[in-house]
């Protein structure tokens, strides 16, 4: 089933003539647990136990962050609404621009932005791995997730990560245009698929956001896209491919192994996203 695939598309790099940039796009297709290829031997062996849930595998993947006790003791259980309407008037106001020198120790470092960062674990893990070389910014439309992620980052004493409650379509360029350093990478990982046709306009990857991203990226900057719904993955890929500023990574870097359709065979980020784990387990 297409919905059981986790597809990662595009480290995309702009190469507009006015900037004379090089460009590339990374694509990655994830096998599901129903696929004939095993997704990870450790996960498969754990999943064989009927008492194991995908949430347990997520906890195992991010165990070194030691986040569970910290959040439960301080904030209690955080119940999150799964779907929101980004076109609602309540999300139409741009998010306030932070004082970058207050939220980052060095605001001139290259910036990685995760649009729809969800719980923030993925971004927190990356920030912990690269404390002195990159800054990380998570944009999330659900305020409770932002509050929890900010609490986690503070507890871990990370000074290279920040989370903002924001509608990326409205706030992305407004925020990033003020950042002192270069925009290195933008990731959009398993966004709300909004399955109903009349709701497709709610999908986050639309031309206005694509234009904002491409106009903000540094020379050699990248876009990384992931979805566990094939239709959504292809739609996002098409949105970026419609611009002549992008080039797929396998046409530039043969060492990035891809299938016949150009999807990467391995996740290049160093850790699986939470939805990626859930999709493999299902």
From TrEMBL:
Recall the GO molecular function terms of this protein's record.
tRNA (guanine(46)-N7)-methyltransferase activity
Matching InterPro entries:
SAM-dependent_MTases_sf, tRNA_(Gua-N-7)_MeTrfase_Trmb
Q: Does the keyword Transferase apply?
A: yes
What is catalysed by this protein? guanosine(46) in tRNA + S-adenosyl-L-methionine = N(7)-methylguanosine(46) in tRNA + S-adenosyl-L-homocysteine
Instruction: Please verify whether the record's keywords include S-adenosyl-L-methionine.
Output: yes
CDD domains, alphabetically?
AdoMet_MTases
Name by which UniProt lists this protein: tRNA (guanine(46)-N(7))-methyltransferase
Q: Which organism is it from?
A: Corchorus capsularis (Jute)
